[in-house]
Amino acid sequence: MKKNKGIVIIAAVGILVFAAVLGGLFLTRNIGKSSSAISQESADKKLEKMVKKIEATEVPARKEAVELSTTSLQDELPDIGTYPLTVQPATDLYVEILSSPEKAGDGTDGWFNEVAQKFNQQEYEVNGQPVSVAIRNVSSGTAVEYISSGKYVPDAISPSNTFWGEMIKAEGVPVEMLTDRLAGNVAGVLLKEDKYNALMDKYGAINMKTITQATIDAEIIMGYTNPFASSAGLNFLVNTLYTYDNNNILSDTAVEGFNSFQTNIPFVSYTTMQMRDAAESGALDGFILEYQSYANLPDLKREYIFTPFGVRHDEPLYAVGTLSEDKKQLLNMFKDFCLNDENQKLASEYGFNNMDEYVSETPEFDGDTLIKAQKLWKENKDVGTPIVAVFVIDISGSMDGAPLNMLKESMINSMQYIKSDHYVGMVSYNNDVYVNLPVGQFDLNQQAYFKGAISDLIATGGTATFDGIAVGVDMLEKALVEHPDAKPMLFVLSDGDSNTGYSLNDVRDILETYSIPVYTIGYNADITALEKISSINEAASINAETDDVIYKLKNLFNAQM
């Protein structure tokens, strides 16, 4: 590679990192490989020629002091307006409810919204005052973070299951359960029909013990969602631990069992949609999903068999904080309205109220135990399997000014969520490609070089995205020679445009052959272009705006790194 041309690094058109992240998500190097992938030898030769032609410039490393203190959750969370109201209040006296997405979204995920709108049309009163409700669609994990941090405290919350209410209580916030069920739902494992039948023949039943053992024995390829953000993911984590020790899910026995299971998990997704896409590609034999979603996806119902697990997801409703008597009365009035025959019939039409015969064998856990289980997952999900990650950062001219400043702030903040036993390198690109930081263990020394490289970025020039990706892949492959058991990841931060150098078609077969997941985070981006890059190996593509990119990067790194 060339020595420094004297160019000050030109810096970052956007942000694209994961998953999901939650999720997030990484696949082993031989899973889901496309039939269009070329041989390893051909990929090696092609990549070598491309990198030689690109002639990346090495940038002298510079250290910058690393802050060992962590950023507060309140500072990381975006303004609540990032999650707009899905139902507006119609009166001066109203209650706002943060609701999980499966009932406060669009189409068949919009039951709660539809009921709230009908409620607001009834012209109900409390003590002579007209009343209404407001609904805000926020995932259960994120809603709990808003409440527990004090960043934003609504009048009520309706998460997917009761775990989240217990976690709010453990954080010292007053909560009162008004009902443990607004609409019936369960979480489940979906297995391809042939795998389901094979496991039934061998084990005689499909349950968490069967799933964990079949995963350990490599009989199935299993995926699940990030337990920091996803209700089904948290439920799955807790039940996996419970399978190994039903007296103490935090015991050494439970942790050892989880580690043996997690070793054979290639896929922790950032979002449920990302996991669905991976299932459709054939990369997974099994994954987790709520029955309400399963009921509304006929293709899944034809190919996968649903087996419920864990605590029920019956959409409980909690009052939060100290409410006035009028607001308490209003919340109870709305609860009763949701539970009337007409609205329960509507819930059934939208996929809820199925599998009412299912009774969980999993006990309820206190919030402190659940919080510790999440931390245990973060610490143990990749024990013994380091990650080699290269960050590929777009520094073309469109990032000049506020966008680049935000990119720097979010990347520096997110460093704290990368484990020190992983290996990290960095590439940036505009018309040309620059190696800002060779791959090295992310100890304090490498962190200081990483922060210095980020801080020195400046923006100018064109956009050779796939040149940058090619150099990043080359760095990964060389690092894997030294660390053959590591999991490779590529993080691309960009606006999605590419106007010079190689194209997606030039690098697609290389990425397919190496099975490297490419996480993309688009900052005010052409998200379709980025999704195409990430979809090659079922990685996550996140569309971030200025006010929420810090939080999204934090979630991705926390889940994947």
UniProtKB/TrEMBL annotation:
Gene3D superfamilies reported for this sequence: von Willebrand factor, type A domain
Top-rank taxon: Bacteria
Keyword tags: Membrane, Transmembrane, Transmembrane helix
Membrane-crossing residue ranges in chain numbering: 7-27
Name of protein: VWA domain-containing protein
Leader peptide range in chain numbering: none
Residue ranges of every copy of the VWFA domain listed in the record: 388-561
